[in-house]
Amino acid sequence: MARKKIKIDNTMCIGCGACVGTYPDDIQFNADGLAEPITGEGEEEAVEVCPVGAISVEE
Ligand code: SF4
């Protein structure tokens, strides 16, 4: 597990909640019901929980 800067593309997010449920300290829903990073950092494995590939990390 490694902490990285994470980005979430809200043009791709379908609001399934997988990332929010798995990483509630790092990712939350915004007012539109789409995921957003809380601090901008998260576990790099968060990329793997998204079914549409909306989460990416900056190396
Ligand atoms: S797992 Fe992906 S599609 Fe689901 S809420 Fe998170 S960013 Fe959106």
Overview of this protein structure:
- Strand 2 and strand 3 form a beta hairpin.
- This protein has helices at 18-22, 46-49, and strands at residues 3-8, 27-29, 35-37, 41-43, 55-58.
- It has 2 helices and 5 strands; from the N terminus they run βαβββαβ.
- It is globular.
- The model has no long low-confidence stretch (mean pLDDT 96).
- It has a 3-stranded antiparallel sheet with strand order 4-1-5. A two-stranded antiparallel ribbon has the order 2-3.
- The protein starts with a strand and ends with a strand.
- The protein has one domain (3-58): 2-Layer Sandwich (Alpha-Beta Plaits), CATH 3.30.70.
- By secondary structure, the protein is an alpha+beta fold.
- The structure holds iron/sulfur cluster.
- Iron/sulfur cluster is lined by residues 8, 13-20, 35, 49-50, 52, 54-55.
Write the layout of secondary structure elements.
Blueprint: E1 3-8, H1 18-22, E2 27-29, E3 35-37, E4 41-43, H2 46-49, E5 55-58
Iron/sulfur cluster (SF4) is lined by residues 8, 13-20, 35, 49-50, 52, 54-55.
Unreliable spans: none
**Structural class by secondary-structure content:** alpha+beta
Number of helices: 2
* Order of helix and strand elements from N to C terminus: EHEEEHE
Mean pLDDT: 96
The helicity comes to 10-25%
